[in-house]
Amino acid sequence: MAIKVKEVAELASISVRTLHHYDEIGLLTPDEVTSAGYRLYSDANLDMLQQILFFKELDFSLKDIKDIINSPSFNREEALQMHRQILMEKRERLDRMIATIDKSVLHMRGDIDMTTKEQFEGFNFKENPYEQEARQRWGNKAVDQANEKLQRSSPNEQKAIADQMNSIFTHLATLRDTSPASAESQAVITQWYTYLNQMGHYSPEAFRGLGQMYVDDERFTRNIDQFGEGLAAFMKEAMAIFADQQQTD
Question: Where does the HTH merR-type domain lie (predicted)?
C-alpha cells in the first residue's frame, strides 16, 4: 500500500524535509510520484528507510549509507544482524555506565567504597567520529594542524576561537533566506574559509567537500541548523559557489 510522505515522516519520527532530501540525493526515492508531484512510498521503500535509520543510529554518513545499500553485495538481513550486535554492545556499555553512576552516588553517601578503576567503567572516548571522518575525507594534515593549534592555545585563545566561529555562523544564519551567491553571503562565507585556514589548510575543493558533508551527514546538519533551520544547506551552496569563483579567478 502506498503511503504519503507526511505519513511516512510521522511513522518514522523524522521530518518531511528529511525525506525530500533523501530523495534529492538519491538515497531513498519513492516508488511512485503522482501527476501532482506527491511522493508515495511502498512497503519496500519503508524497509529501506528502516535500514537507513539503523545506519544513521550508528553514525554512518548519508554518503556511506548510500554506497552501502546500493552495493551489489548488500544483504539486508546480514546488515540487520550487524546492527543488532553493535546495538547490544552499545547497550551493555550504557548499562555499565549506569551502574557506575549508581555506585558513585552510593560512594558519595559513604555507603560503599569505590576504586578509581570502578569510577571510569563504561567510558570510552578514545575515538572521535568527527575527527575520524575528517581524516578519511581530507587526510591527516589539516586535522593535525588544527589539533596542534588548539593544543598550543591558552583557554582564553580557545574561547576566542569558539566565539569567532559562533559569530560567523550567527551572521550566516541571518542570510540563509537570501541568495548564497549574493555579495554579503560570499563575504561572510569567505570569513568562514579564512577562519578554517587559520586552523589548518583547506583548499577550495576541500572547502566545497566540507560544505557537502554539512548536508550529507545529519550529525553536522543538526549541529549547524541549531543556529537556524536550513543553514547547513545554505552554507553548502555558498561554499560551492566560493570554490567555483576561486577556480575562475
Answer: 2-71
